[in-house]
Amino acid sequence: MTSWLFPPQPTPSLPIVGDERRFPVRRILCVGQNYAAHAREMGSDPEKQTPFFFSKPGDAVVSDGANPAYATATGNLHYEAELVAAIGEGGQIIGWAVGCDLTRRDLQAEAKKAGRPWDAAKGFDQSAPCGPLTLGALPDPAGAITLTVNGETKQSGTLDDMILNPARIVEAAGKLWALEPGDLIFTGTPSGVGPVVKGDKVVVSITGLETLNFEIV
What's the whole-model pTM score? Predict the structure, then answer.
């Protein structure tokens, strides 16, 4: 029996729609600028870039209707609506969820300017709110993806606006990492990203999936 110096942290997890079991989260991989309009709003040329990834720790997940805190060390916290793919045995997608990639945009801009990593801008505590996981095929591969803040639509697009579809994202990620059960992949965000402040109510919706609702606290 293993003896620990101190008790290990609980395994982060997501609830599963219609299932008493939970999906244990191992880590979170995110593909950057996977919608052409968003790539342009971030100052990139979608015709010239190749797929790139960044990551968040598994315990960045915020689930079960919990509300994320406004991040420390930033004055410009941004939302990014995302389709989330859940990886099971054999590195295959077994389910889907609605997610939001919270970003310290000011820290990201500073890191880009200095040519430094984005870790502090992306992989901070409570930076990955996620809705419940729906097992099986994506209900509508061309479905709508929207985000509202306090009832006002900020992002609106369709999943088929992606530069790389989920299968190609998994293929690209699999060349960089050995994908394992419990991995989550955030597949990119449409244009219209912007700031949130304490008290803002965010709703992220994707056709056929459980809606994600949270308030910045």
Answer: 0.95
Alpha-carbon distances, residue 214 vs 63, 68, 73, 123, 146 (angstroms): 10, 7, 21, 19, 14
The contacts of residue 61 (CB under 8 Å, 6+ apart) are 12, 13, 14, 25, 28, 128, 129, 130, 184
What is the residue whose two structure tokens read 């960089």? 176
Q: In whole angstroms, what is the distance from residue 202 CA to residue 131 CA?
A: 12
- pLDDT tens track, the chain, 217 positions: 899 999 999 999 999 999 999 999 999 999 988 987 776 776 666 665 677 899 999 999 999 999 999 999 999 999 999 999 999 999 999 999 999 999 999 999 999 999 999 999 999 999 999 999 999 999 999 999 999 999 999 999 999 999 999 999 999 999 999 999 999 999 999 999 999 999 999 999 999 999 999 999 9
Place of tokens 């060349």: 175
